Amino acid sequence: MTNNLDTLATALYATTDELLKVRPDLAPWRPPVGIAPQLTDAELVTLAMMQAMLGFTSEARWLRHARGHLRHLFPYLPQQSGYNKRLRKAAELLRRVTRILAASTSVWSDDVWIVDSTPVECGRSRETVKRSDLAGWAQYGYCASHSRFFWGLRLHLVCTLQGLPVAFALTGAKADERETLLDLLAAEPHLVATRPGQTLIGAKNHFGRDFEHELAQHGIQLLRPTRKGERQRPGGSLFQPLRQVIESVNETFKGQLNLEQHQGRTPHGVIARVMQRILAPTAAIWHNDHTGQSVKRSLTAYDH
Hints:
Elements: H1 5-22, H2 41-53, H3 59-69, H4 80-89, H5 91-103, E1 112-123, H6 126-131, E2 139-143, E3 148-160, E4 165-172, H7 177-187, H8 190-193, E5 198-201, H9 209-217, E6 220-223, H10 239-256, H11 267-290
Parallel strand pairs: 1-5, 5-6
Antiparallel strand pairs: 1-3, 2-3, 3-4
C-alpha cells in the first residue's frame, strides 16, 4: 500500500465510518428529526486530521485550499462558520477516535512510557489576557526549555517511545506536572491495571517520595534525571538520548503541527484544535504501523 496523504485520509475515513456505524453514540448529539448534515462525521474527522497534518492554522485558508485541491475526497465542504461549529462539537469524537486508533497499533503495548508537558500559548498582549474567554483557565507560566514566560495552557503528554499518545491533558500553565500525571492515571485506571511493571521516564520535575510511592502503587517504576543534591539515580546514562526522544515528540507538535499557532479563542475552540493535533500523529503512526513502515512517527509522507 502506498504511503501518502490521500491513502491515510481514505483509511481514516473508512475506519471512522465503520466505527460510527457500530457505535453511533460516539457521534456528537443531534436531534433525531431534522436535516442530516451533508458533511458526515467521518468526513469531518478526516478533514480535521488533514488540516493539522498540512499545517493550516486558519480555517478559512484551509477550506479554500480544500475546495481547490480536495474535491475528490470531499464533494461537499461547509463554510468556515459551519466547519468551526461542527469541529468544536466533535472534540470528544476526535478524542475517542484517537484512542481507538492508538490502541489498535503494535506499539500501544510498549512497556516504557515518556511523560512531559509543553506550553500552549494563548495570547501575548495584556488586553488579550484581560478580555479572553480563556481567562481563569489560561495562566502565566514559565517554560524552562526555552527560558521564557508565556500566558496560556500546558499540554501534558504520556507517550510511548515511538511518540504514540497514550494519555494527555490540557491544564493551566501553573498546574503541577506530578498532580496532573496522577490525575490522568486515576481517570483511566485500566491503562496501568493491564500493564504490570510499566516504566515511566520523566523529567526533573517528576520528583518526590510521596509521588514515587503513588506511582509504585500503580505498578509504575519512575526513572528520571538526578536532581542537584541527590544521590545518583539508576539509569542516569540513559537519560540524555531518551530526553532527545521527548524533545523530538514535542517538536513534532510545535514545529510540524503548529501547536502554539492553534488560534483557539474559547475553551471549546482550543480543545478541538489541540485534539486535531493529537489525532494527526496518532493517525500517521497507526497507518505507518499497519503498512509496515520502519519509522512509525514519520509524518514526511503526509505533510505535503
